[in-house]
C-alpha cells in the first residue's frame, strides 16, 4: 500500500455516486424551499411538493439462488485470459462458494511459490485455533533499584507513536500509555530493561536475506516489537530496525525521561505489574496483517497460535502450529513446504488447490469460524495491496474482486473471491511462477475480471 494516493484512487468508486446524490438532494431542497416561500400562490387544492429525497445506505446479501456457472462455461470464458504468455507457469483452481464445486483447475496440486498468499493459511489457522476476540497484554514490571522492565508478549502492533497521533495498526496499544501508568504509580524510574523471553530460538529464518531488514520487509522476530519494527511508524515500506526490543525499550525510556541505555533482563516471576496495555482483538489484527501484508505480524501470530496450543514459542513452532491447526480442521496439508508463514521466503511451496479450498470454506456457510477471512481480503481498486490494482487496468474488477496478493521475484499470486454479474460468488486461487510480477499481476487480474464478467453457462 502506497499510502493516501492509493486510498484516494479507491475511494473514487464511492465518492462519485455520493457526490451525485448530494447534488440531486440539494436541487430538490432548493425547489421545496421555493415552493414553500410561494405557497400562497399555489392554486387551491394543489398537491404540495414532497420532502427532499434521503439516502439510506444498506448492504444487500448475495442471493442464494443466483445462477451458477458451469465448468464448460468457465473454461470457455477464460480462454482468452488464460492464453496470455505473461502468466508463465500457471497453477490455479476456481470453485463455487455455495456448492463447493470445482469449476476450473490447472495442475491445482502442484506446489508453487505462494509469496504472501501463504498468509491466507496463517490467518485461517489463527481463526480456527484461537478465540476471535483474543487480545495480547504487554506489561511493565518493577525491577530492582528503580529499574522497570518492559516485557514483550508477542504484539508487534504496540506503537511508539505519542498519544493522539495516528498509528499504522488499528486501535494499537501505545508505549505512551505505559509511560503514563508508570508515572501515575509514582515510581522513580532510573533505567529501562526489556524482557524478550516470551519467544525463543532464531529470530530470522535461514532463507531470509538480512538486507530485507533495511529493505522494509522484516525485522528480527522477538517477543517485543513496536510498530512492526518500522523506523517510520506510518510508512508501509519503511526500513525496519535490526534491534526491535531495544528500540521499543528506548521509546519507553524516552517517554519517561530516562537517559540510561536500555538493558536486557528477565522479569522476576513474582514481579509487580505496574503498567499494561492490550492489543486489538485477533480479528482486527489479522485484518491489518492481510490488508497490509505485514510479514512481522504474520510471524508473531503463528507463534501466538503455538503458545496457545501447547507448541514451542519459536518461529519453527509457529510453522508447526499453522500446519496442525489447518490439518486438524480437515484441510489436506500433504505436499506443503513452510519455510516461514509470511511468504517472504522463496522456499515455501503451497498448492493453488489448498488455497482455494481454504478461501472457499470461508466464502460458504459450513465453516463459520473462517467467515471473517473474507472481510480481511483487500478490495480491488480500493484497499490494501489491491488499492492500485484494477484502478486503471482491468477496471471491471474494481470493487468486485477481494483477494490476497503475493509477489516475489518471479512469483505472483492472487487468491480470493469475486461476485459474477449474475450475483454468484466464486472463490479462486491463481499462482504464476517464472515471469516478472510487472506482467504477471495484470495477467492474473484479467482472469479475475473474466470471472466477474461471466455468466459462464
TrEMBL record:
InterPro entries under this entry? Beta-lactam/transpept-like (IPR012338), Peptidase_S13 (IPR000667)
Q: Which UniProt keywords apply?
A: Carboxypeptidase, Hydrolase, Membrane, Protease, Transmembrane, Transmembrane helix
GO term, biological process aspect, one: proteolysis
Q: Phosphoprotein: is it a keyword of this entry?
A: no
SUPFAM superfamilies per the record?
beta-lactamase/transpeptidase-like (SSF56601)
Question: Which Pfam families does UniProt cross-reference here?
Answer: Peptidase_S13
Q: Which protein is depicted? A: D-alanyl-D-alanine carboxypeptidase/D-alanyl-D-alanine-endopeptidase (Penicillin-binding protein 4)
Organism, by scientific name, is Williamsia limnetica
